[in-house]
TrEMBL record:
EC numbers, comma separated: 2.4.2.1, 2.4.2.2
Pfam families per record: Ppnp (PF06865)
Protein name: Pyrimidine/purine nucleoside phosphorylase
Organism: Trichococcus ilyis
PANTHER family linked to this entry: PYRIMIDINE/PURINE NUCLEOSIDE PHOSPHORYLASE, PYRIMIDINE_PURINE NUCLEOSIDE PHOSPHORYLASE
Coiled-coil segments: none
Length: 103
């Protein structure tokens, strides 16, 4: 899949000593997404806006807010993280992802 008529922020978003990186994609409609890549590791992220995380490649185990067990997400699957929350994930090898932010 590809995006048309977008702007891309050139500077990368870099987290966890470079193990997680992404680029911000801005749409004419005001929609914002990030395209990123994560190396193996354990991570915890905080959200401001609601996020939909789509796995484009690889896999991640995710502990969503209010859940007591991690769930494995693989290529083609997605999940939603509520606004103003935090979530944890474990990546065994790598994950390629697209994160969409609710306006």
């Amino acid at each position: 899949m590809e995006f048309k008529n977008v702007s891309v922020v050139k500077e990368a978003n870099v987290y966890f000593d470079g193990k997680v990186t992404s680029r911000t994609v801005l749409f004419e409609s005001g929609e914002k997404k990030t395209l990123g890549f994560m190396l193996a590791g354990d991570y915890e992220f905080n959200t401001d806006a609601e996020e939909t995380m789509e796995v484009l490649g690889g896999e991640m185990s995710v502990l969503l807010p209010g859940e007591s067990e991690y769930r494995l997400y693989t290529k083609g699957e997605s999940y939603i993280v509520p606004a103003n929350s935090s979530f944890k994930m474990t990546v065994e090898k790598y994950v390629d992802y697209c994160c969409s932010y609710k306006n």
